[in-house]
């Protein structure tokens, strides 16, 4: 997986504060104040991409790099949902 320099810088900042929720403006200011002064929204598309690719999590309007505990809790919850015996229903065939 290849990351751009900005993606790596954002991931590094977020990883150092794993479990902390940040707004895109906070990340923008922390990573590059100059870019933030020019455009307060510059980090948002990068954060959206990282969230889409599941490198970070999106929680409402906030982004976070999950801690190991959060990751394992998430996996545990997902496992429970998947193994709960919920049946998938296929659409009835045309009669």
Key features of this structure:
elongated; 5 helices; two-stranded antiparallel sheet; 95 residues; mainly alpha; 2 strands; Arc Repressor Mutant, subunit A
CATH class division of one domain: Mainly Alpha
Oligomer: single chain
Number of DSSP strand runs? 2
- How much is the average pLDDT? 87
What is the strand arrangement across the widest sheet?
1-2
Major sheet, described briefly? Answer: 2 strands, antiparallel
CATH third-level topology of one domain: Arc Repressor Mutant, subunit A
Shape: elongated
**Residues in β-strands, percent:** 5-15%
Tally of DSSP helical segments: 5
CA distance, first residue to last residue:
48 Å
Structural class: mainly alpha
| H and E order | HHHHEEH
Query: What CATH architecture label of one domain applies?
Result: Orthogonal Bundle
> What would you report as the Rg, rounded to the nearest angstrom?
18 Å
Helix content: 40-55%
What are the segments in which pLDDT stays under 50 over at least 5 consecutive residues? 83-89
